[in-house]
Amino acid sequence: MSFKVLLLAGSREARDLSGLLCNDTRFDVVASFAGVTREPLDLPVAMRRGGFGGRDQYIAYLQDTHINCVIDASHPFAAKISMRSADVAKEIGMPHLQILRPEWKASVGDKWVFIDKEQDAERHIPLGATVFLATGRQTLQGFANLTGRRIICRQIDVSEGPFPFENGEFLIGRPPFSVEDEMSLFVKLEVDFLVVKNAGGSLSASKLVAARQMGLPVILINRPANPDCERVQSAERAMEWLTEHVTCGS
Questions:
Q1: Among 157, 186, 153, 189, which residue's Cα sits nearest to residue 169?
Q2: Which of 38-52, 118-132, 169-183 has the lowest mean pLDDT?
Q3: What is the pLDDT of residues 33-66, one digit of tens each?
Q4: 3-state secondary structure (DSSP) of residue 231
Q5: Choosing a second label site near 74 at 20 to 30 A (CA), which of 30, 80, 98, 111?
């Protein structure tokens, strides 16, 4: 009988792990997307979209579908998902692992400022500046106090409504983006400040490299608190963890 894995997806690490697991007959994998991105990239394993309907429904899903373990490879800023998953797994005694890639670290030439929440960006951005938000639409309301600045918010999906502020606009684009593409875009838009979440990862770091080469200041939003659980930094280490649990018969 296969070892059934629920993979909470939404990161590059989830894609990498699904690629490692898809042809391994020891595992039966279901990748779950919360629905933040309306059309997520297909993975080579079974996929489900949408939330579970709450904590009790999540527990019921795990038990009704006979899941053996949960791998949380959601986005580093999916705090509610990660916290709930770790708490539920601990409560019902289910093996659980979080894959969390390292945060970005400043290099020579970077002009970075760290903040804890979106509202704090206003203190560091002067009036009249053009601000490029590479933070997605989910937390856009947190920047409502950036009046007197031009706001450009990049998102993957076409917006279902108008930009919520008079001084802003959406820009649609699906990563990855090259450093050259990001530099050309920043020049074209006359960007003065870049705002990002400190998600980490090599693929999405191109905007930071572009900002460094252009001398643009960057405001990074710190990550939320991590859940109390076992944790690795890569899909390869997660694969080792899974293999140990299969071998032990968990």
A1: 153
A2: 38-52
A3: 886 555 566 889 999 998 898 899 999 999 999 9
A4: strand
A5: 111
Gap between the Cα atoms of 35 and 56, Å rounded: 19
Q: Are 41 and 67 in contact (CB under 8 A)?
A: no
Backbone angles phi, psi at 41, to 5 degrees: -65, 140
- Region 127-131: mean pLDDT is 98
Could you tell me how many helices (H) and strands (E) the chain has, helices first? 6, 12
At 176 the pLDDT is 86
- Per DSSP, the three-state class of 85 is helix
State the Cα–Cα distance between residues 95 and 242, nearest whole angstrom: 9
3-class DSSP state of 202: coil
CA distance 31 to 50: 11
Cis peptide before 176 (omega within 30 of 0): yes
